[in-house]
Design goal:
Layout (H helix, E strand, L loop, with lengths): L1 E6 L2 H12 L3 E6 L4 E3 L4 E3 L2 H8 L4 E2 L7 H9 L4 E5 L7 H4 L6 E5 L7 E2 L2 H7 L4 E8 L9 E8 L6 H25 L14 E2 L15 H10 L7 E4 L2 E12 L11 E2 L7 E3 L3 E10 L5 E2 H7 L10
Parallel strand pairs: 1-2, 1-6, 2-5, 6-7, 8-11
Antiparallel strand pairs: 3-4, 7-9, 9-10, 12-13, 13-16, 14-15, 15-16, 16-17
Helix pairs in contact: 1-2, 1-6, 5-7
């Protein structure tokens, strides 16, 4: 089967690798335009583009996927099926209906739960014990198409964005190839989603990483796992951005209360920060302009006073 693939980040590149290794033929990919990054503003390719180039696959990078010229070029490739994984632009109806076998999407959640842009982060933030991957037929409205295949995966209590993504990649790659094989054989039927059970998650921005110590400590700890490495979970120390990259929750003693955001229990190797209902003990941190380090390393180079107020 001839496939055109749409995707951009690491997850997309891994799905593309699975397709390349299968018996199906990837005849082109569509990914986001190259970006300038770093202090030198060097041009960097998306992970999906890197994977395609290494395999000698044609790469298209329209600024707007809805432009008629871009759609004409994609149509000229003559794909049997379009496959989407984290492309980051809304696909127009013409594109959804262009390939004879339609357009399918790899979505890392148990749809209709966590429709939207950040389902893996949402699973961690909400303390879910399970997540999953859904392969769906794409529809005009985001993440509402019929479910073709879906499978659960168990989540560990200490799951991070990186670890949950790797689980989704392994599961999603297997489901994707199985789905395509069944589409080709004509042995798969879509199941409509129950819209009454749907939930949506918004795109995460840098501002979402700012810590509010008036929240419960467990919620803040989950943010450190969901938002590492981006946007990071951060506060301010002496006017500088202070990232808490990993942490653990330490319960208060009975009747113990503290002003949220106050540094407590400082030693040579550790300190704690008061939250609404418990302490947050940082384990790895990064002060603006410095590298990521353990708290013990941080305290060897910088003194932090008992009672310091963060924020």
């Amino acid at each position: 089967m001839k496939i055109v693939f749409f995707g951009t980040p690491h997850l997309a590149a891994c799905m593309l690798e699975k397709l390349i290794a299968s018996r199906h033929e990837v005849i082109g990919i569509v990914t986001q335009p190259d970006k300038a990054s770093g202090r030198g503003k060097n041009i960097s390719f998306s992970p999906a583009k890197e994977t395609a180039l290494a395999a000698g696959i044609r790469v298209l990078q329209p600024a707007k996927i809805s432009d008629s010229a871009a759609l004409d070029e994609i149509e000229s490739l003559g794909a049997d099926l379009h496959v989407v994984a984290a492309y980051a632009q809304k696909l127009p109806n013409r594109l959804l209906e262009m390939a004879p076998l339609g357009c399918i999407n790899v979505h890392p959640s148990l749809l209709p739960k966590y429709r939207g842009a950040a389902p893996l982060m949402a699973a961690i933030l909400n303390g879910d014990e399970k997540s999953g991957v859904t392969i769906m037929k794409m529809a005009e409205k985001m993440d509402t198409g019929d479910i073709l295949m879906q499978e659960e995966m168990e989540l560990a209590p200490d799951e991070t964005k990186a670890s949950i993504e790797e689980k989704a990649i392994e599961l999603g790659g297997r489901l994707l190839i199985e789905t395509i094989d069944r589409i080709e054989a004509g042995t798969i039927t879509g199941v409509p989603q129950d819209d009454s059970m749907s939930t949506y998650v918004k795109q995460i921005g840098k501002e979402d990483g700012l810590i509010d110590f008036n929240e419960d400590a467990a919620s803040i700890e989950r943010k450190t796992r969901a938002f590492d490495p981006w946007p990071g979970t951060y506060t301010y120390l002496d006017g500088k951005t202070f990232k808490i990259c990993s942490a653990r929750v330490v319960p208060y003693e009975d009747g113990e209360t503290h002003e949220p955001g106050t540094v407590e229990n400082v030693s040579k190797k550790a300190f704690m920060i008061a939250a609404k209902d418990a302490y947050l003990e940082p384990l790895t941190v990064q002060l603006e302009g410095k590298k990521k380090m353990t708290v013990e390393e941080f305290l060897r180079g910088r003194k932090i006073e008992q009672g310091t107020k963060l924020g």
